[in-house]
Amino acid sequence: MPNKQLIGIHHVSAITKNARDNYNFYTKMLGLRLVKKTVNQDDTSMYHLFYADERGNPGTDFTFFEIPVVGRTYEGTNCISLTTLRVKNDKALEYWKNRFNKYGVQHEIISEVCGRSTLAFKDHENQRLMLVSDEKNVGVPGGKAWGKSTIPDDYGIIGLGPVELTVSRLERTVNTLVEVLGFRKKHTYQSSKTIHVYETGEGGSGAEVHVIEEKALPREKAGRGSVHHVAFRVKDNIELKKWENKLTSLNIGHSGIVERYYFQSLYFREPNGILFELATDGPGFEVDEEFEELGEKLALPPFFEDKRAEIEAKLQPLETSK
């Protein structure tokens, strides 16, 4: 049977130098909920923090690996160059502009990008971010803002919007998106550069990848404030297995299916070197914590529980209880 279309964006994972400062910005400034405080399963000496809507619905997770020794980011090409976050409407952007002014968050003016009202800004580590209004959006629905945050419900962040890629060879990335992953060309628009838009599933803000070709720059050197990878949504592990078989049949190197406990994953790099992940929608973050207690304690998958004491000893304490 053929592969079903990918549903949309599942999560974006980035790098931070300091988990405490990161937690303060994304929960207290942006009002996201920390739905899982866990560790990088490939290196359990570092935190892996998941920020999202009220319960970490697929398509709302913005995650961070803490690497205390990481250096600065040297921006360039062949990278994920922008992460966007969805809000309900244009009015919400006015709220955020005023909030950023009040607290000294670096930001640009509200402007229209690809037919949507947007507000570009940066976090304390110069992570490249943009708020995107859903007022005119149709397609994959957003999540539900965390009602107990400091942000009024009408203005809260409801998920991830389009992800922007900057690449040195446009045709290589486009071929992967279209011929391998089944994305379709939506349109092209002009910003400071020509941006090519591809979408999957129901389309819309939660299912778009925007691609810029930039040949002149060197490859980006990742550091604090850079993005590690983007993940796309797959319904379940049956579909994920089909994707594994497809990549194998195309002789595309991949990780094989990896059990992440909260979802299953499959990783590969597109030809310009950007790391893509395919991730299942479930089972989700409530598999080991109650909804009301998400993110309050260090959560470890069962296969790490026998090493809990050893893992905790390597981590700096991070207080996240409500």
From TrEMBL:
Domain VOC: 8-134, 159-281
Keyword Oxidoreductase: yes
Gene3D superfamilies registered for this protein in UniProt: 2,3-Dihydroxybiphenyl 1,2-Dioxygenase, domain 1
Keyword list, A-Z: Dioxygenase, Oxidoreductase
One Pfam family from the record: Glyoxalase
PANTHER family, alphabetized: RING-CLEAVING DIOXYGENASE MHQA-RELATED (PTHR36110:SF4), RING-CLEAVING DIOXYGENASE MHQE-RELATED (PTHR36110)
Record-given protein name: Glyoxalase/bleomycin resistance protein/dioxygenase
Gene source species: Evansella cellulosilytica (strain ATCC 21833 / DSM 2522 / FERM P-1141 / JCM 9156 / N-4)
